[in-house]
Write a structure and sequence with these properties.
alpha/beta; 8 helices; five-stranded parallel sheet; about 40% helix
Length: about 190
């Protein structure tokens, strides 16, 4: 199975109702490393070299975050700025991530209906995905459709658990697809 690296960024992980459950799936998955940014870098002083070394061995990269102001939490954005630099992740000589696959797994406090024209947020959720997706694509990464759990704090514990349960199946499917030989690889 391909190696999976999870970059987890939740400013208050112990108070999380959803992201904590999602993380457990990755904590229990084989060949998976979870790097919790707020635990590693509470002062926001990111060790970019260590982060790049972790990325080097991964085939599947997961960005596990709650939605904060229609994007990722500030430390995740800072991680993008510090780790995904010109000459390494993109631009001249920047091919370190090319061909890797990235998957955004997120929790959103609002319901899916709130992300619609006329809803509380006035736009479809996909409109807020575009900058994160483009970050990955600009680095030459393959983008998987996000896995988003909506309204996790508005539902019962059983409903929360049920909305998180399919994540393990999705992870297995994505990892299995990455493990399949490509037509190019089969011909070599």
């Amino acid at each position: 199975m391909p190696n999976t690296l999870v970059i987890h960024a939740h400013p208050h992980p112990r108070r999380s109702l959803v992201t904590q459950r999602l993380r457990r799936v990755f904590d229990n998955a084989p060949d998976t490393t979870v790097r919790s940014l707020y635990e590693l870098y509470p002062d926001f002083d990111i060790d970019a070299t260590a982060e790049r070394e972790a990325l080097a061995g991964a085939q599947l990269v997961v960005w596990l975050t709650p939605i904060h102001w229609y994007s990722v939490p500030s430390l995740m954005k800072h991680w993008f700025d510090q780790v995904l630099v010109h000459g390494w992740a993109y631009g001249d000589g920047g091919s370190a991530l090319r061909g890797k696959t990235v998957w955004w797994v997120a929790s959103a406090g609002a319901s899916a209906a709130a992300y619609a024209p006329g809803g509380e947020h006035g736009r479809p959720f996909a409109d807020f995905v575009a900058p994160i997706e483009q970050t990955a694509r600009y680095c030459g990464m393959h983008w998987l459709p996000p896995y988003v759990v909506h309204a996790g704090h508005m539902v019962s514990d059983a409903e929360r658990e049920a909305s998180c349960a399919p994540l393990a199946q999705h992870l297995l499917a994505h990892r299995s697809a990455l493990a399949l030989p490509t037509a190019e690889g089969a011909a070599a």
